[in-house]
Amino acid sequence: MSPALRLEEVTTANVTAALRIRVRPDQEQNVEPVAESLAEAYVRPAGVAWPRLIVDGDRAVGFLMAFLDIDWRTDGTLLRSGLWRLNIDAAEQGRGYGRFAVEAVAAEIRRRGGKEMYVTWHAGPDGPEEFYLRLGFRKTDETSGDQAVGVLEL
Asked: What is the pTM of this model?
């Protein structure tokens, strides 16, 4: 990975680059497009969604969106933080950008006092389960909609 690897807030200056991020066709059923993630971030209460562009030098290589203190059960009894979306551009995969993204979200959650990081994924042969398990997430016995839930102790 490049020393110029960083996260940037999505702004008017880089939103077009963010919208150009496309995962491989076989991954499209596993993650929403960046445009949908940005729309979801916009309609959430302030501070819940944390969308960021993953930039290497002057190239946008991916997009992530974390959730911070989201009302997990929608009844106010359980707040959780974690990785909501991860889109690494098809041409940029296999270079460590996904790992960087997960580590960056973990660092942000830790900075805010969090002790656990959650992620959900679609199960199946083309899904990201093995990626998350290799990074230390463990499957819980929960589901979120039709997705498996994983947790990483921070």
From this structure: 0.93
